[in-house]
Structures are given as C-alpha cells and as structure tokens.
Write a structure and sequence with these properties.
four-stranded mixed beta sheet; globular; two-stranded parallel sheet; alpha/beta; 9 helices
Length: 288
C-alpha cells in the first residue's frame, strides 16, 4: 500500500484510495496524481494511497493490461449510492477461500449520545483456505470441500494458492476521529476477517486502513478546529468495523460469479443454494 509513510507523518488523507492488482499499483498511483493536477487539487504535492492483491492465477497479469486511461475512467465514474460487488474493479480476478472472490461492501450505524455515525467497509478479498471458511460461525468451507466445488489445478502453486492470498480492507466513518483513533479502528478489521476464516497465512498481504470524513483541515490554515469521539465511546465503532468487514467479505463471495480466466482456468462461485441448505441445517432446532 503506497502513501502510508505520509499518512503516518501527517495523519491526513487528501485523495481517492485506489485498489488494483499487484503489478499495476504504479499505474493507478500515477493516475491519481494526474487527476489531481487535471482537476486543480489544492495540495502542493501528491502521495496517493494505492493497495493491491494478486490476481495472476486468473488474469494475464504479466501483460500489464491496465492503462492510465482505465484508471481515469474508474475514478471519473465514482459515485455515491449502492456499489457493484463481486467480479468488479480491482476485485475482478480475485479468489477467496477457493471460491470466486472480489469486491464487497457493508456498513453499520452507531449511536453515541444521540448522534448517529456510519462505519462503512470496502474489501478486496483474495485470501483464505477453503476449510477455514465460516458464515456466522458455521463451518461452510468444510462442507463444501474441493471434491464438491473444485478449485485450482494440480500444479505446483496449488498449496500456496489455497492457503495464502491477501485482503485489503478500507474502513470509512463520519464519526469525528483523530489519526490515532483511525489506526485503532483499522485494527478491528482483523476481527471481522477472523470471523470469516482469515488467519493471516504466510504470504498473506492483509492490509487495513481507516479514515474519518468529519474533520477537514485547510492547507493554509494556521490553526484548525477538530472534533474527536471520546476514547471511552469507541467500542461501538470497533464492533461496527468488525461486523462490516465480516459482511463485506461475505458479500464479495455471494455476489461473485464463476469465472474462466487465462489458459481456461476456472474458479467457481460460492454455490448459494448449497450455502442456504447448510445454514438452514445448522440453524434448524434439534429434534428430540
């Protein structure tokens, strides 16, 4: 993830966050800089945040297919409202727990002292072993083994692909937070990831970032008035961040579709009919 040293130094974020594949971080980063210049952004210089996960099992990553124009189009098309999930954007070629993964979103509302705040999560899910997948605590991955829904080939990368992989989690909130509080919130994404079955395997690039939109500091202001949530009131945000991360990962899995990639490689979507059957069976009351 680029730009983190500047965020650690300044505690502020002044540009879109980009998420792409491993080999094209530079293209997206440079595109954000060019867009800032094109649109007359006020900053004197630009150090954008761009993160990646690896999609080279499905995509022809070594052909470097993404261009700056693609990045321009993506940022120019950004809008508010409901987002597409699954096989979209940077998540197009991603794999999660041996099923087709990708992009997922979710949010929670938190109330503190009569004020309502939102915590939103966006994930690019590309990690995890099949047998570790859990949905609301149910060991779905164990019941949908590779003998039922195949994944990967029998080549030398099979074990690494099944056990490793990466995830990017972006948490955003309108609760007034200081930079150190954003860091605390970002760490709670780990809890949501663990609930689904992520363990941070060797080779995983599990990276989390959180930001607040509540405080805006003018570049030329000598003094800035900022607000912060009392640390004793942050537990609700922490729970919201964990829950939103968990749901965003599950949404990425449930919205993704089976994909055929390079060399005819196929990654199957999580079968929703089987998922419903498994969840119903585990939730059904036991009979005497």
């Amino acid at each position: 993830m680029t730009g983190l040293p500047w965020i650690a130094e300044q505690g502020s974020l002044g540009a879109p966050i980009g998420i792409t594949n491993t080999y094209q971080v530079g293209v997206v980063r440079d595109a954000i800089c060019a867009l800032a210049v094109r649109d007359g952004a006020s900053q004197l210089f630009h150090l954008p945040v761009v993160a990646e996960t690896y999609d080279g099992w499905l995509s022809d990553i070594v052909s470097f297919p993404l261009t700056r124009e693609h990045a321009f189009a993506a940022f120019d098309a950004a809008r508010s409202g409901a987002l597409e999930e699954g096989n979209v954007g940077g998540g197009t070629g991603m794999i999660c727990h041996g099923f087709k993964g990708g992009t997922g979103t979710a949010s929670r509302i938190v109330s503190e002292d009569g004020q309502r705040f939102t915590v939103g999560a966006l994930v690019q899910a590309n990690y995890g072993a099949r047998d570790l997948l859990r949905v609301d605590g149910v060991p779905v991955g164990r019941e949908l083994g590779l003998d039922i829904v195949p994944a990967f080939d029998r080549g030398q990368h099979t074990a690494a692909m099944q056990e490793g992989g990466s995830i990017i989690v972006v948490l955003a909130t309108d609760a007034p937070l200081l930079p150190i509080q954003c860091q605390r919130l970002a760490r709670r994404a780990t809890t949501g990831l663990a609930w689904v079955g992520g363990i941070g395997a060797n080779g995983s690039g599990d990276i989390f970032i959180a930001f607040s939109t509540a405080n805006h500091i003018g570049q030329h202001d000598k003094f800035a008035h900022v607000r912060m949530l009392n640390p004793d009131a942050m537990t609700g945000l922490f729970r919201a961040g964990a829950e939103a991360t968990e749901e965003a990962i599950l949404n990425a899995l449930c919205r993704a579709e089976t994909m055929t990639g390079k060399d005819g490689r196929v990654i199957h979507a999580l079968p929703l009919d089987r998922l419903q059957e498994i969840m119903h069976r585990h939730r059904a009351p036991a009979r005497a």
